[in-house]
Amino acid sequence: WQVGSNRELEAKNYLEKHQIMELLNYLTRALLFSRPEKPREYLISLLEQLRIAKITGVAFPFFMDHSNIVSVFEMMDTSNKGTISFVQYKEGLKTLGLLNEDEVLKDDGHVITLEKFRSEVKKRTEKIWSAF
């Protein structure tokens, strides 16, 4: 037993340390968002862009541009108030693959504006890519 649980713990720690699950989740979301004709080539291209960005310091590949983020926000803001609830905010981040199931976000009691949502999407995306 001990050997198996040790190996599982090592594997879990390795995946967490290198943010592999976040990257795979993000790549999957990008793939489903873009739905390219050649998915393998698309994923290879994204990873190659990431490698080049890392070497040159150029911006990372980001599949959610401003209009896409606005669209996601507007889908949650069904009453067109310009704000979403904290629960919607968390669900939006989960949907985009930017929030782990076990991650705890603190609700400060404020509603979430488009700018805050956009900023958080950008920050979390950069964090995922910067790990590589």
TrEMBL record:
<dbReference type="InterPro" id="IPR039879">
    <property type="entry name" value="EFC10"/>
</dbReference>
<protein>
    <submittedName>
        <fullName>EF-hand calcium-binding domain-containing protein 10-like</fullName>
    </submittedName>
</protein>
<feature type="domain" description="EF-hand">
    <location>
        <begin position="64"/>
        <end position="99"/>
    </location>
</feature>
<dbReference type="InterPro" id="IPR049760">
    <property type="entry name" value="DD_EFCAB10"/>
</dbReference>
<dbReference type="GO" id="GO:0005509">
    <property type="term" value="F:calcium ion binding"/>
</dbReference>
<dbReference type="InterPro" id="IPR002048">
    <property type="entry name" value="EF_hand_dom"/>
</dbReference>
<dbReference type="Pfam" id="PF24548">
    <property type="entry name" value="EF_EFCAB10_C"/>
</dbReference>
<dbReference type="InterPro" id="IPR011992">
    <property type="entry name" value="EF-hand-dom_pair"/>
</dbReference>
<dbReference type="InterPro" id="IPR056587">
    <property type="entry name" value="EF_EFCAB10_C"/>
</dbReference>
